[in-house]
Amino acid sequence: MKDKNDNLNLGDAESVHERVREGYAEIARANQTTGGSCCGTSPCCGSTVSSVNELAKNIGYSEAELAGLPEGANMGLSCGNPTALASLKPGEVVVDLGSGGGFDCFIAGPRVGPAGRAIGVDMTPDMITKARRNVAAYRRQTGLDNVEFRLGEIEHLPVADNSVDVVISNCVINLSPDKPQVWRDIARVLKAGGRVAVSDLALLRPLPKEIQEMVQARVGCVAGASLVSEIERDARAAGLADIRLEQKGDYFEATEASEDPLFTQIAAALPKGTRPSDYVTSLNITARKPG
To answer: Considering the entire predicted model, what is its pTM?
Structure first.
């Protein structure tokens, strides 16, 4: 990977994609060898909050859900619980944008049951490999064969039009250099009446340019986040309706209090008298494709 302190060229979407892909490939490989938090000493989305399982419990995952996961599927990359937000039902087809090691897909699978399907999409081959390796363990633990992982970008999902009941995503859309296209593709793959349940980081006000260009802040889910108003605008422009945005400031304040190196670096680059939680919040986003 290039020097993580290099600045991003925000005008070059493919360059942004590549730097994010490199960062998450590094996360996947490190997690395979250390079994620790997603980024080792350089956390993503608050993974240093005592442990990845403790973080997951703090944002709404149950002990039973976590206990049933294949080893290593939870890498501390979450900023909410979209599977609970989605109220998944048996028989539904759910697509997870930026599925990583398979965390939310492996939780969604038992909820949609043998007649349903959970499809994870990720642009990082190392993440897809990691998730696919865990499918056998998932089958043994659940008796289900209803989870799969596809390599692809969330702006151009490898999923047929009008074929999905629910789209979920967990701290990923912020990474995209073309968020309006992400929302358009979400609308494309959803069936009429289909639902969206997304947990992501969002901005309460614009970040300084210095932070926007930090590679590690981009991989760490902060620098690429959109303003809350922009998220609503993009979802509505894509044709979605019943859009609801719920800010979860307590989560981000707990992450900030963990004093992890990334947020310390971000705080140092902010105007005097401000802190990261003045700029960034965790956001639950729900919407529906008109039916």
So the answer is: 0.86
